[in-house]
Design goal:
alpha/beta; six-stranded mixed sheet; four-stranded antiparallel sheet; 61% helix; 633 residues
Length: 633
């Protein structure tokens, strides 16, 4: 809560700047229309005094014929003023609809664009449901504040100022009464509205927590049912739902109580003003002198009572919008919090380019795709640009890494993988296998040591270019809404249909794809829920194959595939891996027997390394794992 309070003023100022950045002319027009609407409303109310004192009162005593022309003139003027106010109100509400929806569109676009620049660490440390809540609940709170609360608040403040000015013009003493009641109403608003605002902000946070939990349970529904944890899930949900209920109840209780209290105070003020006005007229009629009172008429009293009613209703209107503005500012704070997240840093300057050989056999940059790739390495010391062929030669030299500086998870990791070699990582869960591959593609940056790619420090390579040279197949498959062909082409968006089909054939995915209802044009949705786990994994491998990178990372790529499918996949993967540098993480040791080198990790250290046969001869940890004496955890 304290953190939100500190963020709110800055968030509000940023929001206003954001609005004026995209819609300056629209907002100026809105403000002008609101000013016109307020002036029309207040002036029309003031015309009641003229209507009564110049037409109705004289008409009672002298007859309506004497004042008929003046009555018509005043009524026409009031009609024109009201019409002008209605036109201004219609105009600004239409414009605010454009501003509101347009601003939300820009917010969502900016959030999504910025989210694409964030490092993997951000998504590892933030619940996905909480992030989704920013796009839905928080932007909806912004919609209410921008489209409704801010214009009404601006209009209310102007109305109060204009009404007070006219009140002072009519009667100082009655205005003092209104101001005393107004101060009391504002104090009540501050007390109840402040409490409502605090719980509105808490409600917004509780709603995000609940949505994050729901998203988590939906993703893990099979696990919940397998382990019969439905009742436990219900209990956890009830706790979150109760928290949301309590915050919402308190927020709306304070908000709902505030309106009736202010209305009753306003009614009391109305009665006192009516009595006070009647007494002033009585004293004036009976010639009881009251210094400084001035001339009071029935028209002034009636007009004043109308303005007093408008004044109290305006304060009630402000009180109703305070909570909505507080919730909107809280939503803006969460939106800006996401947009303020530090983007992934990329200090690299070496890029990946199409290359060709000149007449001397030297690599130069090609204008069109050639099938040959090279690292374009500009030098800061004025030396000419050099080109290094992309081969997939990767070396790790004394690498240390920790997800937090206080605790290292990798210690002094050194290894090399020559082009075309297959390197396998074996070890229990948490040993550091996946972490090493995350460092190669720079999802995380190392604490100490060096990683070289074709002899170039990967810190010098731009991250998009580095990752373009790496193919990765994860244990958890992510497919996207679209056709089977679209999902394969995701590996390389400019790939032709023929290249996608060739990749599917290479990985032995073609046969099952052709058995689907519409073959390669079969629509997938829900992360490929209409496919088996093995089929989804085959598509993932085909997607990596169409990218055709020189280096592949296979993170438990066959762990979710049955034995028969695994043999098909392994055959296709052998074709895929030919001539490429491959890093394999596998629990099934049968899949790593043909690796050039096997690294056995334990608690972030390489404790054994060598080929399958040499490690078996050593009869160390790998031997015990392979023979079943030890089990991988």
């Amino acid at each position: 809560m304290k953190e939100n309070k500190k963020q709110q003023p800055g968030s509000f100022v940023r929001l206003i700047k954001y609005l004026f950045h995209y819609y300056p002319a629209h907002l100026v027009t809105v403000m002008v229309c609101i000013v016109i609407n307020v002036c029309a409303s207040v002036v029309a109310t003031a015309f009641l005094q003229r209507l009564i004192d110049e037409c109705i009162t004289p008409g009672i005593t002298s007859g309506m014929d004497a004042v008929w022309s003046r009555l018509v003139s005043i009524l026409i003027t009031m009609g024109v003023i009201y019409a002008l106010g209605v036109a201004a109100s219609f105009t600004y509400t239409r414009i605010m609809a454009i501003v509101t929806q347009g601003t939300l569109k820009h917010f969502r676009t900016d959030m999504f664009d910025h989210m694409q620049t964030l490092p993997i660490k951000y998504f590892d440390t933030h619940a996905h449901g909480d992030i989704m809540s920013t796009y839905t609940n928080d932007t909806d709170a912004l919609r209410q504040m921008i489209g409704q609360s801010l214009p009404q608040m601006f209009q209310a403040v102007l109305t109060m100022a204009a009404i007070l000015f006219l009140m002072l013009y009519y009667s100082l003493w009655l205005t003092i009464v209104v101001l005393l009641f107004g101060v009391g109403m504002l104090l009540i608003t501050s007390k109840f509205g402040g409490a409502s605002s605090r719980y509105m902000v808490a409600q917004q946070r509780s709603l995000a927590d609940e949505e994050g939990f729901i998203e988590e349970i939906m993703d893990g529904q099979k696990v919940v049912k397998v382990f019969c944890h439905e009742e436990d899930s219900k209990a956890d949900f009830v706790k979150l739902n109760d928290k949301l209920f309590e915050d919402g109840k308190k927020a709306h209780t304070y908000g709902n109580v505030l309106g009736p209290i202010l209305n009753n105070v306003g009614n009391l003020m109305y009665v006192i003003l009516a009595l006070g006005g009647a007494l002033l007229i009585y004293f004036q009629v009976t010639n009881v002198g009251l210094s400084g009172v001035g001339t009071i008429s029935a028209g002034i009293i009636i007009s004043f009572l109308s303005m007093a009613r408008q004044f109290s209703q305006t304060i009630s209107q402000i009180s109703m919008q305070v909570s909505m503005i507080a919730m909107g500012i809280a939503g803006a704070g969460r939106v800006f919090e996401l947009m303020d997240e530090e983007p992934e840093q990329d200090e690299g300057y070496v890029t990946l380019v199409n290359a060709q050989k000149d007449e001397k056999g030297n690599l130069v940059e090609a204008e069109r795709p050639t099938g040959l790739w090279a690292w374009k390495h500009p030098h800061k010391d004025g030396q000419p640009v050099t080109y290094t062929e992309l081969k997939g030669d990767i070396q790790l030299e004394h690498v240390d890494f920790g997800y937090t500086p206080e605790k290292l998870v990798l210690h002094d990791i050194s290894l090399y993988a020559k082009p075309g070699q297959k390197i396998a990582f074996v070890g229990s869960t948490g040993a550091g296998k996946t972490t090493i591959t995350n460092l190669i593609n720079r999802f995380y940056d190392i604490e100490d040591g060096k990683i070289r790619y074709d002899g170039i420090n990967i810190n010098k390579i731009k991250k998009p270019d580095l990752r373009r040279s790496l193919g990765i197949v994860l244990q958890d498959v992510n497919l996207f809404t679209g056709t089977v062909m679209d999902n394969i082409r995701y590996g390389r968006l400019n790939a032709t249909d023929e290249e996608c089909i060739a990749a599917a054939k290479l990985t032995n995915a073609d046969s099952f794809i052709r058995r689907l209802p519409n073959g390669y044009q079969t629509m997938l949705s829900g992360n490929g829920a209409n496919l088996s786990q093995g089929q989804r994994q085959l598509l993932s491998i085909a997607r990596a194959a169409v990218a055709d990178p020189p280096c592949m990372i296979l993170d438990e790529a066959t762990s979710s595939i049955d034995t028969r499918t695994e043999s098909l996949v392994q055959e296709g993967m052998d074709n895929l891996m030919e001539g490429r540098t491959v890093f394999v993480i596998a629990h099934r040791l049968s899949t790593v027997r043909n690796s050039k080198a096997i690294m056995v990790l334990d608690h972030g250290r390489i404790i054994e390394r060598g080929s399958h046969d040499s490690l078996i001869e050593e009869k160390g940890t790998y031997y015990q794992l392979y023979t079943g004496a030890f089990e991988l955890e």
